[in-house]
Design goal:
The radius of gyration is 21 Å and the shape is globular. The chain is built from nine helices and 20 strands. Helix 5 crosses helix 6. Helices cover 27% and strands 29% of the residues. The structure holds uridine-diphosphate-2(N-acetylglucosaminyl) butyric acid (EPU). The site of uridine-diphosphate-2(N-acetylglucosaminyl) butyric acid (EPU) has 19 residues, from strand 13, helix 8 and strand 19. The site of uridine-diphosphate-2(N-acetylglucosaminyl) butyric acid has 19 residues, from strand 13, helix 8 and strand 19.
Length: 344
Amino acid sequence: MLKILTDIKLSSFNTFKTGGNARFFCNVETESELIEAVSFAKENNLKFYVIGNGSNILIGEDDFLGLVIKLSIKGIEIESRDKDITILSSCAGENFDDLITFSIDNNLFGIENLWNIPGTVGASVVQNIGAYGVEIKDFIFSVEGIDINNFKKFNLKKENCDFEYRESVFKKNKNLIITKVFLKLNNSFFSNIEYISLKEYFSKQAVQIGKGELKVGDIIKAVEEIRRNKLPDWRVLGTAGSFFKNPIITEEKYTELLLKYPDLPKYNAKIGFVKIPLGFVIDKMCGLKNFRLGQVGLYEKQSLIIVNYGGAKFSEINSFANIIEEKVFEKIKIKIEREVENIF
Ligand code: EPU
């Protein structure tokens, strides 16, 4: 029987550490508990939100008069194995690092570059997480869940999930709640160190690690170190990682910006477009490195990250983000988009 708690402080359930109380709150560990929770909300005409580890959301400071459902369904299994590929399933409430650890323990590879991203497997798919040259979509086979409009189960093949940079059908349609993810992993390890910061890390280590001798453990160690040096520890400081998306702009716009900022880096995007690092734009082009207002500021080592230095409320962080949006627009006439979702 599902336990529904009342008046729960939400600041303990998100890495930005903001939010008032939730009038109702429950932790769901099975699909039937999820259905029970949603039914409770519908029967009582309550708004509801499903959260994972709360690592990519910004919660409002007013009390939320509805139901917050923390999705904690656990379980990882090997479904089928052929010569080169293995299909593995992970329930949505697993921690992403636990999924990587399970994969490596079972000699399954591909997602190791995504090490140390705080969050659940379900949320990682909603968001199509990406880091160091890998996006989770590259390894998705299908996604299972419940459509809470009619309580019917769905199983969407990867092609139908509309994955794009930090986007998916699940981000647009909040009625589709993910319960299980099927991943297609490699039985052999191939290192993927094309991303600039990994390339640089390994070129410095060249003496210790000969060519072709990289092991999966080396990637884990490298990503851990790079992240430690660049990102704040969410256990210590309030943060949700990159607050904005890196803008995707036309090649013409990029050429125009290069005239004034010849060092502006670019990453590949769809034909005719490039992706530019907003951290560089905010830091070097807008001159906002270390910009801070009260208890909210840009992280000293990465200007794409907003930090709650202690006690900042939703409204302060939200207005701070608005200011960054305005300053970037003033400077380069680009409307930036948020990666972090406002809730309530
Ligand atoms: N840069 C600056 N100043 C800064 C920050 C960055 O000049 O303050 C420059 C860097 O020197 C580099 C470039 O901007 O030339 C890109 O920086 P970085 O490699 O740190 O990556 P990013 O584009 O800021 C993205 C993801 C991260 C992911 C890293 C590593 C987005 C919005 N962010 O960051 O994802 O970990 O690449 O792959 O795409 C997240 O989504 O929460 C997240 C942390």
